[in-house]
Write a structure and sequence with these properties.
By secondary structure, the protein is α/β, with parallel strands linked by helices. The chain has helices at residues 4-9, 25-32, 46-60, 64-80, 102-115, 134-146, 168-177, 191-201, 216-225, 233-238, 250-255, 267-270, 274-283, 289-297; strands at 12-18, 83-91, 121-122, 125-129, 152-156, 180-185, 205-208, 228-231, 260-262. The longest helix is centred in the first third of the chain and has 17 residues, at 64-80. It starts with a helix and ends with a helix. It binds zinc ion.
Length: 300
């Protein structure tokens, strides 16, 4: 069996990485100096995770320099994991840390991209939450999408459909300008919701999408449309979206012909890089080495 080093040595994509939470706890702690008790730990769901975010990580990120430090730490840990293509999500809310100055926000992102260009192909992704101030999204998002700095967009937040029509024009604009269209769905929600969101926004990629595995017809739909799912098995296990790591449905997705990559989601919380997750999937008998090769090849 191939060891962890083998997987680290292989070129790979991380297409599901929220860059403000994308570093190992070790790096975060060295920077913040403020320990998070009993951490990282398995949690009952997103509510518990958001409790930790609101108590410990969000209050620690106060300035533009803090945002930049967090992103740089995440890029560093991705490079250490052998990630060669990083589709890293940057939340639109960090515009506040830059005094709502778009030029400064974009200049910071571009400097991180160019400083690391010899080691990693970083493709910034504009992330926005369904519950974020809609006026600010309408004010900032179109120009951020037009800036040329972002290569993809990602919509996340509660897995509900109310109000999603308010975001449709941003997906249409992204389509026109050639940015990839992604959204979070099927982490806790079912197969139908996955298909519905893909059709509504004409998504090219889904963040998570494991709910699709409940219905072979939806897996076939994703395979036929070649909709890539950027799944995060350790995140799904740590947030109790799957009962055990061994029961993760990634194998069913691969066998149905759905394009799949392995992402970290939030390394700070889940502590497993792409390489370790792929290694563990093979070691625990969830997938074969041939499947691992397919995962590694997808997206690079
Ligand atoms: Zn995510």
């Amino acid at each position: 069996m191939r060891d962890l080093e083998y997987y680290i040595s292989q070129p790979k994509v991380d297409a599901h990485n929220h860059l403000n939470l994308g570093m190992h706890y070790e790096a975060f702690l060295a920077w913040s100096g403020e320990p998070i008790p009993d951490f990282p730990r398995r949690m009952s769901g997103l509510d518990e995770m958001h409790e930790v975010i609101s108590r410990y990580t969000r209050p620690r990120c106060r300035t533009a320099e803090d945002v930049e430090s967090l992103i740089r730490m995440s890029v560093r840990d991705a490079i250490a994991d052998g990630v060669t293509v990083l589709e890293g999500s940057i939340d639109i809310g960090f515009m506040y840390h830059f005094g709502e100055n778009m030029d400064n926000f974009l200049a910071m992102i571009s400097s991180v991209v160019s400083d690391n260009a010899a080691k990693i192909d970083m493709r910034p992704e504009l992330g926005f939450g369904k519950t974020f101030d809609k006026d600010k999204i309408h004010k900032w998002a179109p120009d951020l999408i037009r800036s040329g700095v972002f290569k993809s967009i990602d919509l996340y937040g509660p897995e509900i459909f109310e109000g999603i029509e308010d975001f449709k024009y941003l997906f249409e604009l992204s389509e026109k300008l050639g940015l990839k269209k992604k959204a979070h769905v099927g982490e806790f929600s079912d197969a139908d919701s996955v298909q519905r969101l893909v059709e509504f926004f004409d998504l090219q990629e889904i963040q998570h999408g494991i709910g699709a595995a409940q219905d072979p017809a939806v897996l076939a739909f994703l395979a036929k449309r070649k909709v890539r799912c950027n799944v995060c098995p350790q995140s799904n296990y740590m947030l109790s979206a799957v009962p055990t790591f061994e029961e993760h449905p990634v194998k069913a997705m691969l066998d149905a012909g759905v394009p799949v990559t392995i992402g970290t989601d939030d390394l700070l919380f889940f502590d497993h890089g792409c390489s370790l997750q792929i290694y563990n999937l093979v070691a625990k008998g969830v997938i074969t080495e041939k499947d691992a090769d397919t995962l590694l090849k997808t997206g690079v």
